[in-house]
Amino acid sequence: MTSQIAGHLLVDCLIAQGVTHAFGVPGESYLAVLDGFHAHADRIRFITNRQEGGAAFMAEAQGKLTGRPGVCFVTRGPGATNASIGLHTAFQDSTPMVLFIGDVASDARDREAFQEVDYLSFFGPSTKGMAKRVERIDDARRIPEYVARAFATAMNGRPGPVVLVLPEDMLTQTVDAQPLPRVEAVQAWSDPGALRDLRTLLLASERPLVMAGGGGWTPQSAAALQRFAENWQLPVTNAFRFQDTFDNHHALYAGDVGLGINPALAARVRESDLLIAIGPRLGESTTGGYTLIEAPVPKQKLVHIHASAEELGRVYQPTLAINATMNAAARSLEVLTAPPTLPWVEWTQACHADYLANIDPANGGITLPGTIDMPALIHTLQKHLPADAVLTNGAGNFASWLHRFYRYSGLVNGHKTQLAPTNGAMGYGVPAGIGAAILTGRTAFTIAGDGDFLMNGQELATAVQHGAKSIVLLLNNGSFGTIRMHQEREYPANVSGSALANPDFCALARAYGYAAERITHTAEFEPALQRALAAPGGSLIEVMLDVDVITTRGTLAAIRARAQSVEPPR
Q: C-alpha 37: how far from its chain's center?
């Protein structure tokens, strides 16, 4: 057994877990780890980010894309707190991730040393929204144990983030230890009796509906889900921002259940007599603020299948709860025998017809102002982006155009194609797209608003430094548009804090090393996209959008008029 410093051992442990890329901002508190990355540069790459929030988002995207923990390294105090946004995203999105924090030396601990933070209090499970587990490695000999446990915890049950704190002096200790073997996620199988009960519920149903989403899906489990749906001719919806769980081109697809939901689909959810939720935790966005599915006791019969036993019955009291991971659940469901005839075939066909009508730009009954036809732009994306392209977005009304009109290729086709934050984190799309380009080499396309872009636009420099190519479609309406929409609804014509004075985005992108062009008319977009796809490096396409074009179904002017027509309370 060869002695080495602990920082090098830690990198060895990451390599043993199959990690090929780690994202972070360097800090003096983990110099020994950085030296380990240098020593093993042929097997693992450290991606130098410009801000810890961007690094954490890239690691979160890594977890979504690979199904194994994304890895992020930050320094203590400000570095860790900057990274907290990515940790919260990983928690709410059920994404496996490990955040390593270089910390103060052991002899300075608990003195409010330079940049010291109590990470258990800040990130721990008691926060109910940050990390599944927070641990500090004080003994360098136990690094393999802690790393293996972090990976297991991040993947098992409901996937999520884990924090490992690394005292600076511990990382420089000389140690004789070897990495532990690669950890694989444990599969929890459905109870056979519960599957029989599910079949009984299906046979008694007239209007069943499947809702798929959450973490833990693979191409294999997505294929099994598709076979289950085909065997039983079930309409399938995808949960909020998990739109690639089920192939949007499939004849059984009924649309996504989330913000800006198709009103016809919302009606179908309410009318359903059996809702089979496979994977999603049924959060606020997926349930329409707990109204599509009423809490705590739904009007529909609810079968809730989830990888975490703690999640079952936490918000909703299901008719049938099944604790199973997605691979195991879907493989159990695909062999569930269906009868030769099913009474809901017309219901299923109608659900799919509702979806097709919703993505037809001619349906909507509104005329949007300005010279940009957003549905046409999304249609152009569909026409030219490869089927395996990774599409990313942050948070804002701008994303609704993609969510409504783009048809995601499902995981069943071998690749994850959507990266989007269910926790509504602004600034996610740009780093996630760059991270996807670094990790996969596939086409990475990001849609961003002007406010959203400025949260993490600095990561374009990261892309250029590491040879990554992403394409950014930036919708510039000079506003925090979502907030402006809410203002017009609640306080019509009183605009406060939501207007933006923006830089020259094209000049900014060029300064980072991206190609850039600005378009003001719909016809200019297709050639601009083709140039971006053909370019050797990253590109930004800025679209000047009228602020009145605020949603896929209405304008700010219409929202304001409705609000002003309501007599204020006396």
A: 28
